[in-house]
Amino acid sequence: MPFPVGFDASSRQPQVELLSISSMTLKTLKHYCRIFGLKVCAKKSVLQSQLEEFSKDQDQWDRLRPGMHRPHKGSHTVTGGGKKKTSRPKLSAQRLTKLRGDREPNVTVHDGHNAVERSKDLHTPQEVSEIIPWAQAIIAKHPYRPESEVTTSGTVPARPGSSGVFLPQLQTESTISSIASEIAQKVSVGIIAQLDAANMVDTCDIASDSSCAESLMVPSSDSESMSHAVDETHHLKLGDGTKVSFVVNNVPDPVAVTFKENIPRLNAMWDDTSPYWKEESVLMIEGRPIPIVYWSDVYHYGKYGQWQGTKSQWTGWRDVISRYRQSTPEDFWNEFSVNGRAMKFTKIVDELRRQRNISNDDIVTCAREEFGNTFNSLFTYRKGDKVHVMRNKSAIARHYRQLKKHE
């Protein structure tokens, strides 16, 4: 039976192909029904009947013809008799009608004989007659001039029928440049003041020093006072008793370093109080290598926001070194190996954190049982003027170890 399998691009005539629907499988029949836009069901006889009717009725083939099948913009006549169909304009058209002063919005009537005009210009002749003289007056009063000749005097008259808002003319390049420089100066001063205030917070104990808290209430606009925080001198005591003095501006940014493939190197840089210290570090201050264990003090003082990004990585290093030093390197890798292959550094950190959480749970349970009713008075912390009972398991475990250490 003949079926249209395509249409010629130039003549738009169908390209016919003979198909034997009687020998087709159910899957093939469904495939052709979908191609020809026919309904698909599970009965083979129904599908064959639909395809047979479609093959005989070549008028249905036009549905597959590429191109436009429905009218769009332009005039067209609505056919059909019976009841007149009435449609109301959109809400936006109704609001526009009320603004013009009409009592009732226009209603379009489709009676089967009138042509409906599409894409019409909705401006009334009165509106057009008002706009054209207004535009001509503007051109006559303000002829085109190069940008370099534009001045700030004068305003553009309001358009007829508008709200009467006057628009100032463009500023000259020199005026715009001066305004931009003034804005940039004020913005930069505000940003510096905020950063300096944030740096000062880390150097003060607000809970115990009210004078420091008062100094942070309103940042000074004086350039000398704003630079005081970043120029403040801090002191760091190393393991051998040496004191290193530094200011925030002299501390380099946290180094992008990884020890995933070299834990012994991390062990040699971690602290200067163990026999593993090799007097080598990736952080240098005043020509001295700073062990990684002191990074929390160095960056906590003044590198605003940078310690928060380094803290998680530093904590992972601390946990790995703590376990690495509990036994020999051979025992460490025997514990953190799977099927004879060493675990990745990140996997080791995750496993150590899991073990630490289990240990903290056990310590919290032990502390509550051991101290009983006195737990809420011993395990506390101060925030502002209020004392709170510890809820964080890590903090409780840390405080419990300190209590046991001093017994």
Give me some keywords for this one.
two-stranded antiparallel sheet; 407 residues; 16 strands; alpha+beta
The number of distinct β-strands equals: 16
> Biggest sheet: strands, sense, closure?
2 strands, antiparallel
Spans of at least 5 consecutive residues with low confidence: 73-78, 103-117, 163-171, 195-228
Give the terminus-to-terminus CA distance: 100 Å
Outline type? extended
Structural class by helix and strand composition: alpha+beta
Q: Gyration radius, to the nearest Å?
A: 41 Å
Helix segment tally: 15
Strand content: 5-15%
- Percent helix among the residues? 40-55%
Instruction: Give the strand order, joined by hyphens, for the main sheet.
Output: 1-2
Mean pLDDT: 74
Structure overview:
This protein has 407 residues and is α+β, with helices and mostly antiparallel strands. Helices cover 44% and strands 13% of the residues. It has 15 helices and 16 strands. A two-stranded antiparallel sheet has the order 1-2. Strand 9 and strand 10 form a beta hairpin. Helix 1 packs parallel to helix 2. It starts with a strand and ends with a helix. About 16% of the residues have low confidence.
